[in-house]
Predict the structure.
Amino acid sequence: MNIGIIGAGAMGSGIAQVAATANCNVNLYDTRPEALAISQEKLAKIMNRLVEKERITAEKAADIQANINYVESLETMAQSDLVIEAIVEKLEVKKEVFSTLETIVSDQCILATNTSSLPVTAIAAACKHPERVLGIHFFNPAPLMKLVEVIPAIQTDQAVFDQAKSTIDSWGKLTVEAKDTPGFIVNRVARPFYGEALRLLEEGVADVATIDWAMTKIGGFRMGPFTLMDYIGNDINYAVTETVFKAFYYDSRYRPAFTQKRLTEAGYLGRKSGRGYYDYRENAEKPMPNQDETLGQKIVDRIVAMLINEAADALHLNIASRDDLDLAMTKGVNYPKGLLQWADEIGLSTCVSRLDDLFEEYHESRYRCSPMLRRMAKWGRKFYPET
Ligand SMILES: NC(=O)c1ccc[n+]([C@@H]2O[C@H](COP(=O)([O-])OP(=O)(O)OC[C@H]3O[C@@H](n4cnc5c(N)ncnc54)[C@H](O)[C@@H]3O)[C@@H](O)[C@H]2O)c1
């Protein structure tokens, strides 16, 4: 297959590596020649490391590199079967690129965007043939993250969707289908992991080290919310939260926290700036968690109840299927269990009463229980009925 990739930044370079590893012929384009040079250098380093670790042979590494052409003209996209755009996250710029692309590629070529937060439908609308446009959302780093969300726009042809999905599957990825709504699956359902942890911190229920300890040691998550936010970067995480909040017409459930905004304003961006929720500077003292099991369990119960509620609501609103929702959270962000499976294990009535208790206490709509969760609990149903 001939694959065109636009934008040779973190994502475009990673996607190019994935496609090249699957023996596709890749044209990687960027408006900045230096971005192409950096991308090529980085790939060479990655390939050397993989050969050293004996993950791939030197011959395979050479093939992968030879499969990628670093191109400085969009015209080279003419022979593409599929073009994936991974440029700057600005709607107007993406629209312009898509409408130009359409004048270059064949009628059969599928056009995809890797956007994290823009409406795929609005990007498709810039094209004369919007039925060939869809979202193909890889996670960072694309070569390592197994999950890919595939998002049909309102205008997308079913055949285009099927073809794109099976192409990405053939690259060894795990694809899930998501509706074109803010945050798709992962960036929507994961919001309470950060948001509720921040609430607990702001209310003084526990400090960052204790919340992280509870979520990893008791909750079984690979990383605590504050450690993870410091990894992602507070500026990035804040921007995603704010975008999702605005895109949901200011639904209070997604409201960003002042703590996060202030840290961003202070330049405490996390690991990359040496300081975030934790201090990464040399000789900085590591805060110790309060390892009180009862407190820890309370923290986990509250955050997990909110995550389950978000997943149940996404199912309720047909954002994705039950299986895709659980797959997305276990494979996309390494949650210890699918949230709907977890709800069954906890018991749906228990989940409902945890949320109702929070709602009763705060009278804030962020704690409203999803109608689906309540209905299923009332009927004594499970998300995964035993057969
Ligand atoms: N970084 C992530 O974690 C992540 C994860 C999933 C999706 N995304 C999405 O992927 C896209 C790219 O993100 P990134 O992190 O790789 O960005 P990046 O800044 O690392 O790279 C973007 C590249 O696009 C190039 N570019 C800008 N305008 C262009 C144009 N008109 N034509 C061609 N090239 C152009 C830039 O020169 C740059 O090299 C965004 O839509 C982002 O939302 C990012």
About this structure: The chain has a mean pLDDT of 96. Residues 2-177 form a domain with the Rossmann fold fold (CATH 3.40.50.720). Residues 6-12, 30-32, 35, 86-89, 93, 97, 114-116, 138-140 surround nicotinamide-adenine-dinucleotide (CB under 6 Å). The longest strand covers residues 133-138.
